[in-house]
Amino acid sequence: MGLDAPQRQDKLVMDVLTDQAVSWLGKQDARAPFFLYFTPVAVHQPVTPSAKTKGTSGCGPYGDWIHELDNSVGRILDELDRLKLADNTLVIFTSDNGGVLLTSGDAPEAKAYAAGMRVSGPWRGRKHSIYEGGFRVPYLARWPGKIPAGTVCDETINLVDTLATTAALIGQKLPPARDGAEDSFNFLPALLGQKLSKPQRPDMVVHSADGVFAIRQGPWKWIEGRPSKSKPPKGRAEEFKPQLYNLKDDPAETRDVSAQHPDVVARLRASLHKYRSQGHSRDNLSNL
């Protein structure tokens, strides 16, 4: 596909990457802090499951490729357990965007869909979209004795919040918002299962691959609908207009309620314009 370095050996790539991560963990001094940022190639294209996972999912190569990722994460967690580091190690598992949703054709993702896999779950849209399917991703955390096991938190967070959260964890102050971490909010209290009196972040700005912006606040999501391109892609043309959704009542974004709630539209529009003009959504008093 022209995407990879020539030395990549497709059927071995995940094992090799995981071997290196596990080996690195084994060399760490348990008395000193360490940080491992592990970015596996699964479940991205090219889809290349190994011999041990091929045919195991019942959803074709793409499902097998997900199994490959499962095995990799399991090996890393097992190594932390073996080294007796699990109780003092925060593990975060997440993704940078929503899933690739293909409903027809011969691509691995389309074959998985035909077999019953729904990578976007109940959410509308997919990777690149302004709808929730483009943004809703797993954010799983394990820290025995600190994070209550088996719990679910409904707090709205963003991947960029990981920066402010880890800074709070190690007692590091953030720079002024104009200088860095401009959209990062600390959600450590939520992560630790503490009872919250108010949301950890007041709202959240997102945008699609086409440059269409949206802002979320509580149950509300307002899509600005103004593209950065003059001609919208045919498959995402419906995103190029202002829309308002109540995600609590309508999580699948099926009913535009902007006409019924002009006050909400005005408030969210004003917030989006403010953040855009000042260059950050975090104020300088937050997360210090």
What features would you describe in this structure?
- By secondary structure, this protein is an alpha+beta fold.
- It has 2 domains: 179 residues, Alkaline Phosphatase, subunit A, CATH 3.40.720; 75 residues, 2-Layer Sandwich (Arylsulfatase, C-terminal domain), CATH 3.30.1120.10.
- Helix content is 26%, strand content 9%.
- It is built from 6 helices and 6 strands; from the N terminus they run H-H-E-H-E-H-H-E-E-E-E-H.
- The protein has a 4-stranded antiparallel beta sheet with strand order 3-4-5-6, with helices on one face. The protein has a two-stranded antiparallel sheet with strand order 1-2.
- The radius of gyration is 21 Å and the shape is globular.
CATH architectural label of the largest domain:
3-Layer(aba) Sandwich
Structural class: alpha+beta
Low-confidence stretches: none
Helix and strand sequence: HHEHEHHEEEEH
Order of neighbouring strands in the sheet with most strands: 3-4-5-6
DSSP summary: helix tally: 6
Strand tally is: 6
- The 3D shape can be described as globular
What Rg, in angstroms, do the CA atoms define?
21 Å
- CATH fold call of the largest domain: Alkaline Phosphatase, subunit A
* CATH homology group of the largest domain: Alkaline Phosphatase, subunit A
Question: Which helices and strands appear, and what pairs or packs with what?
Answer:
Blueprint: H1 13-26, H2 60-82, E1 91-94, H3 108-114, E2 139-142, H4 161-169, H5 188-191, E3 204-207, E4 213-217, E5 220-223, E6 243-246, H6 262-278
Antiparallel strand pairs: 1-2, 3-4, 4-5, 5-6
Helix pairs in contact: 1-2, 2-3
